[in-house]
UniProtKB/TrEMBL annotation:
Location of the region described as Disordered in the Swiss-Prot/TrEMBL record: 42-64
Record key words, sorted: Membrane, Transmembrane, Transmembrane helix
Keyword Transmembrane in record: yes
Pfam families: FixQ (PF05545)
Membrane-crossing residue ranges in chain numbering: 12-31
Basic and acidic residues composition-biased segments: 49-64
Protein name: CcoQ/FixQ family Cbb3-type cytochrome c oxidase assembly chaperone
Domain of life where this protein originates: Bacteria
Protein's UniProt keywords contain Transmembrane: yes
């Protein structure tokens, strides 16, 4: 093993750098404009099973 990798501080620094690069990659992926449409679709998934409102529901409303 190379001598500079035997220092625990160097190994921790390299680990920190790898984690930081991974974090930046995830942030860039999440805020990419290419992903906006799929994230919008995923945001509406909880409402996918609900029935769509119809115009005939106006009869049931109170006319006040």
């Amino acid at each position: 093993m190379p001598a500079f990798l035997t220092d625990i501080g160097t190994i921790r620094g390299i680990g920190t750098l790898v984690v930081f690069i991974a974090f930046v990659a995830v942030v860039l992926w999440a805020y990419s404009s290419k992903r906006k449409s799929s994230f919008d679709d995923a945001a509406n998934l909880p409402f996918a099973d609900e029935p769509k409102p119809t115009d005939t529901d106006d009869e049931d409303r109170d006319p006040r």
